Model the fold of this input.
Amino acid sequence: MSNATLAGSRPRGRDSPPSVETTSRRRRSSWWLLLAPILAFDVVLFLTPLGKLVGASFADSAYQRVLEDPLVMRALLNTLTISLASTVVTVVLGYIIAMVLWRAGNVARVILFAVVLLPFWTGILVKNFAWAVLLQDNGLVNAFLQGIGLTDAPIPLLHNRFAVIVGMVHCLLPYAVFPIFSSLTSIDDRLGLAARSLGAREGSVFRRITLPLSVPGISAAGLLVFIISTGFFITPVVMGGPGDMMIANQIDYYARQLTDFSGAAALAVILTVMVSILVAVYQRVLKAGGQHEDN
Amino acid sequence: MKTTNPQHRLLVLLSIPVFLFLVIPTAIVVPVALNDSRYITFPPEGISFAAVAGFFADAAWTSALTASLQSAGIAVVIGVLLGATAAIGLHGRKFPGQSAVVGLILAPMIVPTVVLALAFYQFFISVGMVGSIIPIGLAHAVIATPYVYLTTRASLAGLNPALVRSAQSLGAGALSVLRHVYLPVILPGLISGALFAFSVSIDETVMSLFMQSPGATTLPVKMFTDIQFNLTPKIAVSSALLVSVATIGLLLQVMFVLKRRSSARMLPLAVSTQT
Done:
């Protein structure tokens, strides 16, 4: 590899086309130059800050300190329960959408895809702001509930756990739709046709063919959504109450309120390790599900 | 397809509230911003541009808008340069440690934003880079770059490496191979990636929140700070601006997906942990 750099600077004549050997050497010499910028950038601005963060987490027995903090324990528990609840709701709703997309004709599919993608492209603050407007005491949802006579006075829909889950599910839905949709499209249509020709009803085609064969998509969607859920920061603040703070909020609290960097760093490392393990599992699930991901 | 069978009709019926759940929040933002009332309500009582005028007359909001555009500019330029060169450099190659390199390139998408926010906060203080939009733009570039890498890689999927080799064997230098072989192929991926990078930066809140300073407060940070006290018409205007940007991004994206099936495959990969 050491002569690779030299090969690149070798003069080449117009009338003597380079041999196969020099061509392949030149290729070898140039490709790493293309990777150098991103590697340098990521080492300086990604690995170094993260390395410093890990280093800081080992100062002042930070791990012991944060793990003994009842607020942290509560935030961890909140993260787990809120993420699980959001994941279950998201996967169920995502399945319905994926089924409709799967069954839709070409034009309808494009339009519905756009509908799914619009919140995907919209920032989380905008979405949470919109939900806050809808769920406030004089908002549309309360007006609707009073209009149909379900309640006389506004129900507190905002600044509680219900609102956090609504906000999170709204952000997470697109992430669940794509893996489920992709596992549905990989199901051989002939299986359903064969079952129907043998007299199976739609319900049992779904229960005995579609659902089992889309399990890889469901598990991939569930894991992906759960992974993203654990990092939520904005939604618990904007839509939740004081009792709904999650682990990301606790990191912020340690860093910016208590100015306890080592404590914040320890929490950040705990969150990252948790997420990394889940990501590793997620990639296993993707591979096992036979979805073509080449990284 | 099979609208005639009752199970399918039940499915469609079941999905209507879910689609409404997805769409309504984004759909109400623009009418709320144009509401002719001092309160934030939906449905609006009448149409007025007073809140929009108020937004653009308020220096705190316009400077936040400027800061957001500046950081997005930095993120797009760095993201496109680094993401595209990396995708070309890795195209059609196998070498030891390759998966580690790809892993490093994609890693910023996986690390929770709040963790990166804390890491950058500490890092930029330690190197004395605080109080301007530049560290925020650089931080956005870190999370935007993997998106450009992915979109460029997706557009390169159809390019036969033999084409590059034959261009080289005919005497084409590195630059002309880049211009005449790679550029036409990756252009849709580059544009798509640039859109992603712009959108990632313009919506990013947590890192910007940690690194904010009086001269460097982005639009989402201003929104986040204000939302906690009150829902005001200026937040609605800011939301409407961001929704317009998102809609344009979405329309362009749909155009590319329709044009090139390969970029559709990339969409589920676009994992963003900006939450």
